[in-house]
Amino acid sequence: MAEVHVRELKGPEEMEAVVELQREVWGRAESDLVPRGLLIAVQDEGGLVAGAFVEGRMVGFVFGFPTQDPTLQHSHMLGVLEAYRGTGAALWLKRFQRDWCLARGIRKVVWTFDPLRGVNANFNLRKLGATAKTYLPDHYGPMTGINAGAPSDRLLAEWELLSERVYTRIYTPPPEPLLEGLPQTNRVEAEKPVEAFLDLEGPRLLFQIPEDWGRILREDPALALAWREHSRLVLGHYLAQGYRAVDFARNPNRYVLAKD
């Protein structure tokens, strides 16, 4: 496997390459792309634009910008070309981002992600050690490309850069979570949400999502909308009750929700 190198990007040509990556990764319309000039301006004002390179080719990037809190960065985008997923490029980008932020006094990074995309949830919660306690209904309004066809509900990931949990997870894969006996907040049959259970209590609960949300979004608009409404109901309810998404399990895709 070819080695991945990550570095900050400089100049209009490399920023234009980031614009092209946005097109390729998400299939976005021009109106949804962050343009070259804005990437340069945000970097000038303390933002991060870094690229992942394999054999000299840029295959991914991360883009984060400052917030009103000087110790907090908002990570707006991280994307890796499909052919290079599984190479570790995304993890190397996030490691670079963590080191870059800590060197500048930034202690926490936040970003949003679609709660129904299991690959992203697994990466954010399990591999990076982020957690999520905030549900944002239709946060960006109608979207284009691979996100078209359903309201843009999002979870807000919170990445505490100095926590032992984060450091351990980004350098040592954790053991599988212990799920036996945990109550499940919903019932799913044949990739369809069948029932929600909103009266459960306990230190840890499970919430199941589809195995392939991307396929559902492309092929079955009615089912996609049903899943969006279901996740908004169940996740929104339990997060409002003080639970936090702290881990993720595959086969089937399930969130682990914990209440301190």
From TrEMBL:
What range(s) does the N-acetyltransferase domain occupy?
A: 4-158
Keywords assigned by UniProt, alphabetized? Acyltransferase, Transferase
Give the SUPFAM superfamilies listed for this entry: Acyl-CoA N-acyltransferases (Nat)
**Entry's InterPro entries?**
Acyl_CoA_acyltransferase, GNAT_dom, GNAT_N_AcTrfase_prd
Report a single Gene Ontology molecular function: acyltransferase activity
Top-tier EC class:
transferase
Q: Which residues form the signal peptide?
A: none
Q: What is its EC number?
A: 2.3.1.-
* Entry-linked Pfam families: Acetyltransf_1 (PF00583)
What name appears for this protein in its UniProt entry? GNAT family N-acetyltransferase
